[in-house]
Design brief:
heterodimer, A: alpha/beta, Peroxisomal Thiolase, Chain A, domain 1, seven-stranded mixed beta sheet, four-stranded mixed beta sheet, B: alpha/beta, N-(1-d-carboxylethyl)-l-norvaline Dehydrogenase, domain 2, 28 helices, 20 strands
């Protein structure tokens, strides 16, 4: 294999300067009661503080979220204000691809050279999502209220289909076997609990304590609440909501934030507690597949990336994805002829939930941390996003 | 010939010591005489001019001085630019609260406001016969100098003082009277002048606290306050800890809320002054003081340090024990290094340097008391830890030898001094609340007097730094809220000290000359053979309102010294929490109350053995017949107050019912036990402890 060239040769992700909150399931934690933007901004400063990165290094922010929040209009400037550093930045949104897209955009900005250190900050709160009231003169109701999370999950205006329907359609197209899907879901849960027991997640996840308006404790975000210890029997007994989709083989809504830094080589060495580690951007691809077949889109994106870079699946040290449905992984394995047991060794969003924007950010952090623990190599990260989109990126840890 | 443990504070103002004051039977100077000296007498009486009178400092001082000068016929003329906001008018509601509407109206009627263009003085100013200019214009050196020239040209004989927060007198060309926030009520003025002047003595005579300091860039208060702010900013810079949280950790470590204080004063102005102070100090002393980028930004923007109401902090910041220790090292290390500079330069007498932090910058204990508790090696270790994180501070204004000599009297007696003339001694308190440091220093003062062969002593405030004696420093009780042993240790230890005043002197006289003596300090004074007070002084035992149970034998000592018919009065004092005027407490609490000069003479006569005042006998046997209830208590349904009343009543019965030899332990146990009760922990001290310690 010829080593692929980096898409942004100047850009680096400084090892060990990242962090994510736990992702409690929606309505289970104090995150349901707070402004998630403010939480993300303040949590960002806290995580960087724990990682010994003074805020004064930051020059720019790329922030991402998908669910409207109070003061969203003010975007990155407001979030950096909450963090305690007045710097510019912009907001990016691409459903569940947001975290990876924001990271790649930050890499492009560093490559461009205007900013040395960029904070990537992604977050979402599915709990108590806002309800938008839209004037729709052509609708017979004249005015349409939309509950941002559930109404959008339930209806793709381009196809008229719900998210879950795309999973059922894809499962039927690929003739997925319920038993295999259940087995995969069980395995994914086991992977998560093993990683948790090993202490791996402690290197990625940060406990954050929340205060109420009076400054008194409101609650601690200290666990991925909502993750269940499932058995094979539990999974088999679950009612099928669509083909191969049960409550145990699909993800759940959750709340949270995740952040990392993107910078240049010299600054990465300055900021990282292990300056000998280099994390480079190699490539990114993005595809849109046929209507209502979202779960197959990531596999197509990965295939395209492999073709473009010349890297093979056997070259990968870590493979990780955002998999709102277990069939995503089954389809990926069929497409790429890859053993799904080799993927997601430290957990995945099927298990710990789906707050959208920060999902792939947390996945990326976990993947990079895992790659470092393995001594380096290629990290493949991919996932699906609303609109039958698949996104994929390749990083190199050396 | 008077001998003292260390130099009495009054001497630094050009007066004799406290012992002489008692011997002469009068204060060393009268306000009336000094008013005449500064402002002229009769028809020639002139005015006080405050330039920059609409600013925070100018307006505050216009009110503080105006409220004292108007009765002497001294007009206050406030001078400012035409567009300046009405700072003086804003003071009126506060004046009404403090003095009542009629008096507030009189003070305001005596205050004249004039506008000028900053270059030429208004013609009508001459009609007010200016005799004293207090300059409070912006911190721009050339502007200030030009202002003095204009004023001197127009009024050549007038006194001038600058309130500058940073320029030395040598740069300004005038003496300095540097006040402390909040300017309406804070009595402390750091004074820079060649020798104590009539202005300084007048300030003292008016009940203010002038404190002589050396002529250096920035003052003791500013080095401490700006220094602790600077240290917190540096910690923020390393850790990202938000300012509001750093503020709370600084409060836990030392006492001040530097960022909240800046916002309260007005961030724009306060940030500029802090930056200006640090900027000038950095120019003269180097990196230790170099302002952080965050301060520069706030100085320019005027943004508050605390988040606005609509985005109150959401994510908390906790520190592990190790991180908390590092935080303390970083804050204390910086402030101790700055302190080493002030010690090296001898910027002020040690008790002043220590007291300024407490009186003006919210330090729970003055910085020298903190350093003394640590010891020289620990001080140097903290500075080393700070410098390891801030190499820029190395070699910049660091004087490690400054912490040597902690065994010298100046270091050992920061709060308590003693003087004697070979026959009569006086012990003076320079701190208004009693704490462990005061207790230790009082013991050393007693030891010293006894070693000097003194058997007669007067115990009193220092007529300078302490204008009242408000009782125990309740922050000392925080550990006792959780551990009964700590409460017993404090109550027994302090009571034993108090008993020394009774047992180890042939005659001891407690003299109360300030506004009030309350709680622990009153209990201490009770132990003297005589208690003599100025007639209007308030004496009180407010413990029931906190609530706590008195721990220094207040629940039995006074009963033992008074007749049974007075016991209901004592019961009312203890259970009601309301103070009594000294003149109404003679015979059962005080031995004498009268006008100041008479009280001074009476105290001296009693101490000298020349008094006809009979000492009240202390009953050492168990008392019986102590009433279990009393009328005239304030109505309350507050469960905490009711619980405290019951506990105090139980303590009275138990401690009075024991012989004197056992009563100390009995009372200490009761007091300590109540401190661990829900009523106390949920009361004022518990709330203070939670606010301070539960960060």
């Amino acid at each position: 294999m010829r080593a692929p060239e980096s898409s942004f040769p100047r850009a680096r992700i400084p090892y060990g300067t990242w962090g994510s909150s736990y992702f409690p399931a929606w309505q289970t934690s104090a995150l349901a009661e707070v402004n998630i933007g403010q939480f993300a901004g303040e949590g960002f400063a806290r995580i960087l503080g724990l990682r010994k990165v003074p805020l004064r290094h930051l020059e720019y922010m790329v922030v991402g979220s998908t669910i409207p929040w109070h003061w969203k209009f003010w975007g990155a400037p407001f979030l950096s204000h909450c963090a305690g550093r007045r710097i510019p930045g912009f907001h990016v949104e691409e459903a569940c691809a947001t975290g990876l897209q924001a990271t790649v955009l930050a890499g492009a900005l560093v490559q461009e050279g205007d900013s040395e250190v960029i904070g990537v900050l992604t977050f979402d709160r599915t709990s108590d999502s806002p309800v938008g009231v839209f004037p729709e003169r052509r609708a017979y109701q004249r005015t349409v209220p939309i509950s941002d999370v559930w109404d959008n999950f339930g209806f793709d205006p381009a196809t008229g289909k719900a998210m879950i329907a795309t999973a059922g359609l894809a499962a039927r197209k690929y003739k997925c076997d319920r038993a295999e899907v259940d087995e995969l879901a069980l395995h994914r849960h086991e992977q998560y609990f093993e990683a948790k027991a090993s202490g791996f997640l402690d290197r990625v996840l940060v406990k954050l304590d929340l205060l109420n308006l009076q400054g008194r404790p409101l609650g601690s975000i200290d666990d991925d609440l909502g993750v269940r210890r499932l058995t094979r029997e539990d999974l088999r007994a679950m009612r099928e909501l669509d083909t191969c989709v049960t409550a145990g083989t699909q993800t759940h809504a959750s709340d949270g934030m995740a952040t990392l830094l993107v910078t240049n080589e010299a600054k990465a060495k300055e900021l990282s507690p292990r300056p000998e580690i280099a994390i480079r951007f190699i490539a990114k691809t993005e595809v849109r597949t046929s209507p209502a077949l979202m779960p197959e889109a990531p596999a197509i994106a990965v295939r395209r990336l492999l073709d473009r870079t010349g890297v093979t699946m056997n070259d990968m040290a870590v493979v990780k994805n955002h998999n709102p449905f277990a069939i995503n992984d089954v389809i990926f394995a069929k497409h790429l002829d890859y053993d799904w047991k080799r993927m997601n060794r430290t957990g995945c969003s099927l298990v710990w939930g789906h707050p959208q924007a920060p999902t792939l950010t947390r996945s990326l952090i976990e993947a990079l941390e895992e790659a470092v623990s393995l001594g380096g190599g290629y990290v493949l990260l991919f996932g699906c996003a609303a609109g039958d989109v698949g996104i994929c990126a390749l990083f190199e840890v050396s | 010939m008077t001998k003292a443990m260390r130099e009495p504070g009054l001497r630094t103002l050009g007066f004799d010591g406290v012992l002489d004051l008692f011997r002469k039977g009068s204060l060393p100077a009268s306000a009336e005489d000094l008013i005449g000296e500064v402002f002229g007498g009769g028809a020639e009486r002139g005015s006080l001019v405050i330039s920059g009178a609409s600013g925070i400092v100018g307006a505050g001082k216009a009110m503080q001085l105006g409220s004292r000068l108007h009765t002497y016929g001294v007009r206050v003329v406030g001078l400012d630019l035409p567009g300046a906001p009405d700072g003086i008018g804003r003071q009126y509601p506060g004046l009404v609260r403090a003095f009542g509407r009629d008096e507030a109206d009189r003070i305001m009627a005596n205050t004249v406001r004039l506008h000028y263009d900053g270059k030429r003085l208004p013609a009508e100013l001459r009609g007010f016969k200016p005799r004293f200019l207090l300059e409070a214009i912006p911190e721009i050196l050339e502007l200030k100098r030009a202002h003095y020239e204009v004023f001197r040209a127009a009024f050549p004989g007038a006194e001038i003082r600058s309130v500058t927060s940073g320029f030395p007198s040598s740069a300004l060309g005038v003496p300095i009277a540097h006040p402390a926030f909040p300017h309406e009520i804070n009595k402390v003025w750091e004074v820079v002048e060649a020798k104590p002047s009539a202005v300084t003595r007048l300030f003292w005579a008016l009940g203010l606290i002038p404190v002589p300091v050396g002529d250096y860039w920035s003052f003791v208060l500013d080095v401490l306050f700006c220094g602790v702010t600077h240290a917190a900013l540096q910690y923020h810079g390393r850790s990202n800890m938000p300012f509001w949280k750093a503020d709370k950790f600084v409060r836990r470590a030392l006492g001040p809320n530097p960022f909240r204080a800046h916002d309260a004063i007005g961030a724009k102005g306060a940030d500029f002054l802090t930056w200006s102070c640090l900027h000038h100090l950095a120019e003269h002393y180097g990196g230790l003081f170099r302002p952080t980028p965050e301060l520069v930004e706030r100085k320019d923007s005027g943004r508050d340090w605390y988040p606005p109401e609509h985005s109150r902090p959401l994510v908390d910041w906790k520190l592990t024990a190790e991180e908390a220790e590092e935080f303390d090292d970083q804050i204390l290390g910086a402030v101790l290094q700055m302190t080493s500079l002030m010690l090296h330069e001898k910027r002020a007498a040690l008790p002043y340097m220590n007291a300024i932090g407490e009186l003006c910058a919210q330090f729970r204990s003055g910085i020298l008391a903190v350093a003394r508790r640590l010891g020289p090696e620990a001080c140097r270790a903290k500075v080393a830890a700070y410098q390891a994180a801030h190499p820029d501070a190395r070699g910049s204004a660091w004087h490690p030898e400054a912490f040597d000599g902690m065994n010298d009297a100046g270091w050992r007696q920061l709060y308590v001094n003693a003087e004697h003339d070979g026959r009569v001694g006086v012990i003076t308190f320079g701190r208004e609340s009693y704490n462990g440091d005061v207790d230790a220093e009082l013991n050393r003062a007693i030891d010293w007097l006894r070693a000097e062969g003194i058997e007669r002593v007067i115990v009193t405030g220092d007529f300078h730094l302490s204008t009242q004696l408000v009782g125990a420093d309740t922050s000392e009780f925080y550990p006792a809220l959780g551990r009964i042993e700590d409460g017993v240790r404090i109550a027994e230890g302090w009571s034993k000290t108090a008993r020394r005043l009774h047992r180890e002197f042939r005659v001891s006289v407690g003299f109360i000359g300030g506004k009030r003596a309350l709680g622990g300090f009153l209990e201490l004074m009770m132990h003297c053979h005589y208690l003599i007070a100025v007639d209007g002084t308030e004496l009180g035992m407010p413990e029931v309102t906190l609530p706590v149970v008195p721990g220094m034998e207040g629940c039995h000592w006074t009963f033992r010294k008074s007749k049974p018919e007075s016991w209901p009065e004592i019961l009312r004092l203890l259970l009601g929490g309301r103070p009594v005027k000294a003149m109404n407490a003679v015979g059962w609490l005080a031995d004498f109350a009268g006008p100041l000069d008479e009280a001074l003479r009476t105290a001296w006569a009693a101490a000298s053995g020349d008094s006809a005042l009979p000492p009240r006998k202390l009953e050492e046997r168990a008392l019986s017949g102590i009433p279990t209830e009393v009328g005239g208590l304030p109505e309350t349904e507050n469960p905490a107050t009711l619980a405290a009343r019951k506990a105090i009543l139980d303590t009275i019965q138990a401690s009075c019912g024991a012989p004197l030899a056992e009563a100390l332990v009995v009372q200490a146990k009761h007091s300590a036990a109540f401190m661990t009760s829900a009523a106390c922990r949920e009361g004022r001290i518990g709330a203070e402890a939670a606010k301070t310690l539960a960060v």
